[in-house]
Amino acid sequence: MARAASSSSKSAPKTAAKTARKTTSRRSASRQSPKVTEFDKEQELHAYREMLLIRRFEEKAGQLYGMGLIGGFCHLYIGQEAVVIGMQMAMKEGDQVITGYRDHGHMLATGMESRGVMAELTGRQGGYSRGKGGSMHMFSREKQFFGGHGIVGAQVSLGTGLGFANKYREDSTVSVTYFGDGSANQGQVYESFNMAKLWDLPVVYIIENNKYAMGTSIERSSSTTDLSQRGVSFGIPGEQVDGMDVRAVYAAGEKALAHARSGKGPYILEMLTYRYRGHSMSDPAKYRTKDEVQKMRAEHDPIEQVKVRLTEKGWASEDDLKAIDKDVRAIVTDAAEFSQNDPEPDPSELYTDITL
After folding, report:
1. CA separation (Å) from 83 to 40, 178, 245, 355?
2. Rounded Cα gap, residues 313 and 306, in angstroms
3. Which three-class secondary structure state does DSSP give residue 240?
């Protein structure tokens, strides 16, 4: 009898943990924003083209990496395109963007040129950092893009600083600060949350939850998996969003941006999304099954969803969509050719852009 009691007591925590996970899952579902803003023809076509540009660009970047023309790390955004395009469609001129190292999509979404982004990846002088920085060190003040950042979570405090500057200037702009589910457990994130709410800074925090961080599922790495509620103790509202539907992202983005812009302080949006490739090009992603990835692509692909709506509503024919794809591929091909033929930076560039 003693053994039976002991065995039962040992299994209790596991049972409790399972119950807690199920409860968390149910709560997460109840907090997920159901709202979707129906797009008109122009919006659907814009979303389709912009997401397709990111997809084709990233496919080409992966190809160049495999050929040894891109060195270092290379983190692709394939599958997550709806998040940044939906948010960009909801933003106003002057709003800033800052993110982590999975950043090519964000650059293209802000209007940075494909040539400049690809040339930076291959280390050429025509790149956005004149070939000296690579994928994690591109900036564009003109496009209000303040970088991809290689240190996990570092961009959150910097994005909060952008929000502080916005409030100081009283210019009604908002800092849109992206980070991943892996970054969500970083201490500096919570310090930033506290400061942002303490001063009601105009910041929208976008948690791009692609479920696996660097290679560990969120269920194994986070005690609570509803990341939209991580700001509750600071008084920051948040909600979960279908990050695979550009319309849902747009609707949630409009709401969050209006909240921050009106002086009510920060807002958290957890985008439930999915990356089709590994964490980086060197990650074989053996922590998940091929069937899981294929199921996501078949049932939830953000680009295919728009394509279906366009054809079903008669807003675009297959030939129209093929023409868009052809145009996008031409832009990406041009960028790839430029990035291979543009000269490497002069050695004298080693001594420029240095702050003493």
Report:
1. 19, 10, 8, 35
2. 11
3. strand
